[in-house]
Every structure is written in C-alpha cells, then in structure tokens.
Design a protein that fits this description.
The protein has a five-stranded parallel sheet with strand order 3-2-4-1-5, sandwiched between helices. It has a five-stranded mixed sheet with strand order 6-7-10-8-9. It folds into three domains: 134 residues, 3-Layer(aba) Sandwich (Cobalt-precorrin-4 Transmethylase, domain 1); 105 residues, Methyltransferase, Cobalt-precorrin-4 Transmethylase, Domain 2, CATH 3.30.950.10; 45 residues. By secondary structure, the protein is α/β, with parallel strands linked by helices. Helix 10 packs across helix 11. The protein contains twelve helices and ten strands. Strand 8 and strand 9 form a beta hairpin. The longest helix is centred in the last third of the chain and has 14 residues.
Length: 298
C-alpha cells in the first residue's frame, strides 16, 4: 500500500503543466475513490494561483493524497454560510489576473452546492469560467441504474417536511424523464412512502456509496424497495432514481375534447401535432381523428 501511495505522489509531483489562464476553474473531485480524479484536475490544483473549496479541509486532504503541495497559496472557504462574504475576494483575484480553482466536497461543483451563484456572478462580470469535468454522483447513478438515459431530470435534495415533499414530488411525477435526486440515507423511506401515495409501482433505483468499498445498487418498485429498507433507513451517500411514469390509456373522449379546443383556431395538422405531443401518441392517429371531427362539424 505504501508503495502505491509513493508512486501516486511521484506522479502528482512530476506534473509540469503551464500555469492556467486567469479564470475560475470548477474542479470535479472524487465522490468516493480518490483515484477517480482527472489528470487535468491535478494539473490545475497544482498550478492555480488561488484555491477555493466548499470545505478547505477536504480539499487539503485530497491534495495530500495526490502529493500536491500548497506552497503558501491562498485557500478560500466558499460555502452556503459565507458565500456573500467570500465571493468578492474571488472576483478580486480574477480581476487581478490570477487563476482560481474551486472544488466542492465531492463530485461536480455547482450540482447541488452553492457554487452556481459564483459562476453566475462571474459571468455577469465578464470573467472567464472553465469546467473541468469529472466525477458526478448523479451521472454515476444514472449510468448503473438501467433506467432510460435519453432524457433525465436532476431535482436536487427533497424538502425535509412531509407536506413540502409531497408537493415537490407532484411537480415532477408526470414528467417524461428519468428523475434523479439526492437524499439523506435516513429519509429514503419517507421519500418512498410519498412516492407510493402517487405511484407505488414506479420503477425505482437506489444507489448507495457509489464508487466506494460497500457500493450497492437496489432495483425494484417504489413499494417493493420501501419494504426492503429497514425502519432506521440506510447508511452512506444515497442517490435515488425514478423511472418515467407508465403510459396511460387515453380515452377517445379526452382526445376529442383536446382537439375541439384547438381546431377552431389552428390548422388541422398543427392542432393534431399539439395533441399528439401532449398525450404522447402517434401524430398520424391524432391527425386522422382530427379530420374525422372536421367532417362531423356542420
């Protein structure tokens, strides 16, 4: 083990990349295994003029693992509780022509963390923002879930209270996309309970401790997984994914009602296209129904 750590430090210390241009670099950091960091991220952490982090201790530990020295460089804490106070210092550094590397605790910065305000304000100031892509718990969960990945929606963390969580779920439950959320391991049961109130048969995947030693992926329905989770909840970092809603049988009366509202104002083809998109049905079938309704109209 010691030989591997020595080798890793030697590789990191041999990095000789040129100093980066003056910009804010959003550095994606490992969500579990420290070896998942990219070579470009190591380059920037090794050469940036200023370092910023959601938790400076976490970043220092990551740099120590990879043998990257601080060399007296300034390190700025930037998180939810001090963002308004810390942001001017980062903007000032960039205006002075310095490069700043920003890292969240784990994963890709700005995804469910306070960094987005920083990127927004810098863009408004005309300053440069660069992304260093890498680990992401949301995308790692989607990759291993087996759920459709052609369209997905990341909805962040659920509200903690029951009523707010119900309203939050109702806001995306009918969207035709795989939904990805982060959740406290001890509140996963409450999340599933609320989903079961709407759709207990919704295909659901729970990813726990992604990229770590005890990684686990649980697949089933919302109701089935609710029964499988112990009363005290789970342990570790959790990503929960829900499949898109099952296709519903559409009554012809619903289709006729929707067409009747549009046909007086739109050409048949456009009205049919809108209704087909709304009900996720073949356009040709709705077009045929629209023509039939037109003939029926005196």
């Amino acid at each position: 083990m010691a030989d591997k750590e020595t080798a890793a430090r030697s590789i990191a210390l041999s990095i000789s990349a040129a100093p980066p241009e003056a910009a804010l670099y959003l550095v994606a950091t490992p969500i579990g295994s420290a070896r998942d960091i990219t070579l470009r991220a190591l380059d920037v952490l090794n050469t940036a003029d200023v370092l910023a982090a959601e938790d400076t201790r976490t970043l220092r530990h990551l740099m120590d693992i990879h043998g990257i020295p601080l060399r007296g460089r300034r390190m700025i804490a930037y998180h939810d509780h001090n963002a308004d106070r810390a942001r001017p210092g980062i903007i000032e550094a960039l205006r002075a022509g310095l490069s700043v590397a920003y890292a969240s605790d784990a994963g890709t910065p700005l995804v469910a963390d306070p960094g987005y305000r920083l990127a927004r304000d810098l863009a408004q100031e005309g300053l440069v923002v660069r992304a260093l892509p890498g680990p992401s718990a949301a995308l790692a969960g989607l990759s291993v879930s087996g759920l459709p990945s052609d369209r997905f929606l990341f909805v962040g963390f659920p509200p903690a209270t029951q009523g707010a969580r119900r309203s939050w779920i109702a806001g995306w439950a009918e969207i035709e996309a795989t939904v990805i959320t982060f959740e406290s391991p001890r509140r996963v049961r409450q999340l599933l309970e609320n989903m079961c109130e709407i759709d207990p048969n919704r295909s659901t995947v729970i990813c726990r401790e992604l990229t770590k030693k005890f990684e686990e992926v649980m697949r089933g329905t919302a109701g089935g997984l609710l029964e499988a989770i112990p009363p005290e909840g789970l342990r570790g970092e959790v990503v929960v994914l829900f499949d898109r809603p099952a296709a519903k049988e559409r009554d012809e009366g619903d289709l006729r009602q929707a067409l009747a509202a549009l046909l007086p104002e739109l050409p048949v083809k456009e009205a049919a296209a809108r209704v087909a998109a709304k009900f996720d049905l073949p356009r040709r079938d709705i077009y045929a129904l629209a023509l039939e309704m037109k003939k029926e109209t005196p």
